[in-house]
Amino acid sequence: MINQPVSEAEIQKDIITRATYRGWLVKRVNSGSFQHHRFGSGRTAGLPDLICVKRGVCAFIEVKDGKGKLRPDQVQWFEAVVGHAVALDFRGAFVSGNFRAGVCDTWEGALEILEGRIIERGE
Known about the structure:
The protein has about 120 residues and is α+β, with helices and mostly antiparallel strands. The chain contains 3 helices and 7 strands; from the N terminus they run αβββββαββα. The strands form 2 sheets. A 5-stranded mixed β-sheet has the order 1-4-5-7-6, with helices on both faces. A two-stranded antiparallel ribbon has the order 2-3. Strand 4 and strand 5 form a beta hairpin.
């Protein structure tokens, strides 16, 4: 029997491994603030966990465990990215051409986002 990842960190690691194997370039975003030597401070708190790029397709993926909800700063990022309101308990994806943004709690959910197979599904 295969053990299913349970923590957000384990789910992220699983997604990164599998997406990379399938040819995606994946960057895990460290949340928090940073100080840039030229442009002052910038805010990354709330930015989705993973940025994935492959053949002109860009996907922002926020990983939650089965019970996790988006924080207000995460909602703010998603609303800025997709251009309209997002629910705190949202699971699904926004797809527009070669752009995807979504929230998932499994590799299978991430794959649906990467492939653009689910669109705006709330639970």
